[in-house]
Design brief:
The chain is an alpha+beta fold. Helices cover about 30% and strands about 30% of the residues. It has a single domain, classed as Jelly Rolls (Sandwich), CATH 2.60.120. The longest helix is centred in the N-terminal third of the chain and has 19 residues.
């Protein structure tokens, strides 16, 4: 018994080719933007609201629907989303210092290497490395009160944040 090869009528072949072309056009509309932000926070710790800067990069990218990644590229810094309220930022400072106090520096094994920033590594772990946000209609898609912050836990030196935007 022979199996017969399924033959598509010409109209079905045209439909398949048109669908393939549409997919290719769809792929070619993909955009991306990679930028680096640099920070040098005076003092040991601090928080910087970077929402406006990141929103500007989304506009620059031309992406209308997609995703934005903001990533701290240093192990003693953080990127996080929360409310831009000074009292809350102060509360973070107090809370983090209770969880991972800077002094005495001798309490941390890491500091035996000659460093004095073990607490900064722990604070970063708590606050997180990165955030990912949706881009909808060309804008960051936030909930009420949400803002993007750079958190510094071992300052007085230059550090980098990566922003990667991908979408259509």
């Amino acid at each position: 018994m022979q199996t017969r090869k399924k033959i598509r009528p010409p109209s079905a072949l045209v439909a398949v080719r048109l669908a393939q072309r549409r997919r290719l056009r769809h792929i070619s509309r993909m955009k991306s933007l990679t930028e680096q932000l640099w920070f040098e926070v005076p003092g040991r710790r601090g928080f910087v609201n970077i929402t406006g800067t990141v929103a500007g990069l989304v506009r620059k990218s031309g992406v209308q629907e997609g995703i934005c990644l903001v990533n701290a590229m240093h192990i003693t810094a953080s990127v996080f989303i929360n409310d831009a309220e000074d009292g809350l930022l102060h509360d973070y400072e107090v809370w983090l210092e209770k969880l991972a106090p800077h002094a005495p520096t001798s309490q941390y094994h890491h500091n035996r290497t000659g460093e004095d920033n073990a607490d900064a590594h722990l604070k970063r772990q708590i606050m997180g490395r990165e955030v990912v946000m949706a881009i909808t209609k060309g804008k960051l898609d936030f909930g009420p009160w949400e803002q993007i912050f750079y958190g510094e836990f071992d300052g007085n030196r230059r550090k980098r944040v990566l922003v990667k935007i991908i979408g259509e």
